[in-house]
Amino acid sequence: MGLATRAAADASITFLWVFSMASLGAVSSALAPIIGLQGGSGKLYVVLALVTLLIFVFSALGKALGGASWNPTSLVAFAYAGVSKDTLFSLGIRMPAQMIGAVAGALAILEVMPKKYSHTLGGPKLKVPLSIGLLAEAVLTFALTLTVLWAILRGPRSPSVKTGIIVVATIILVMAGGAYTGPAMNPANAFAWAFVSNEHTSWQHFAVYWIGPMVGTVVSVWAFNLLFAPQRPVQKGNAAAAAVNGESDRKAEVVKDGSVKRRAKRATQEESAKEE
């Protein structure tokens, strides 16, 4: 798959992700009374169920699109970990594509959302001082990215279980970070809503929703390599070579010993023949 195709896939899936996530408030408000769940807690249960469904659906969709991603931190994490084939150049194409897709998704949902549910739309909001918000996004993204790396690269073999682990981590971290930054843990999504409100060029947005998550991503890769790095192939190769060489030496000794015994036996037979 070419870079242009991958970028188009990233833009498409990010468009759908932002559009779908932004609609959760309206869908849960409409759906909760229908299924008999009243109040804020009932709406929360519906949102959690829908988030779980969306992550499973988008994980499958991303795989079907050849590894398309809706979060810039995922691209950076897998590239920095050496898992993907992305380079700085390809990241420079794919990440802007995600941003374009995210903005398109936000603008689209604003156009089609009924007015009575328009109050449910919006992106992450900073609710604490900037320095605390930056730290919060860094820590939350660190935890999420480390979980994703472990689940995908070292976790259970079942794709469903891998996704389930990511779902649980996402829900826990979203609930934990709600009082701080929203949270975002996704610079493209945060950029889309900042663009809509004309705040995308502010230092606050850049520091909290870009620097914070990217720092958390880089540190999570360091931590992953420190905690879960495999044994070095060179060491395994040396051990295997030593074992092979040792076995060869033993075989040589056996062959040599056998040759000596055969020569001694022939000499004994010749001596006996001469005496006769």
From TrEMBL:
Coiled-coil parts of chain: none
Q: Which UniProt keywords apply?
A: Membrane, Repeat, Transmembrane, Transmembrane helix, Transport
**Does the keyword section mention Cell cycle?**
no
Compositional bias per record (Basic and acidic residues), positions renumbered to this chain: 247-260, 267-276
Q: Does the keyword Membrane apply?
A: yes
Species per Swiss-Prot/TrEMBL record: Sphagnum troendelagicum
What ranges does the record give for the region Disordered, renumbered to this chain? Answer: 239-276
Q: Which Pfam families match?
A: MIP (PF00230)
Localization, per the record, is:
Membrane
Q: What topology in the membrane does the UniProt record assign?
A: Multi-pass membrane protein
Q: Which family does it belong to?
A: Belongs to the MIP/aquaporin (TC 1.A.8) family. SIP (TC 1.A.8.10) subfamily.
Q: Which protein are we looking at?
A: Aquaporin-like protein
The residue ranges crossing the membrane are: 15-37, 44-62, 91-110, 130-153, 165-186, 206-228
Superkingdom is Eukaryota
Q: Which InterPro entries match?
A: Aquaporin-like, MIP, SIP1-1/2-like
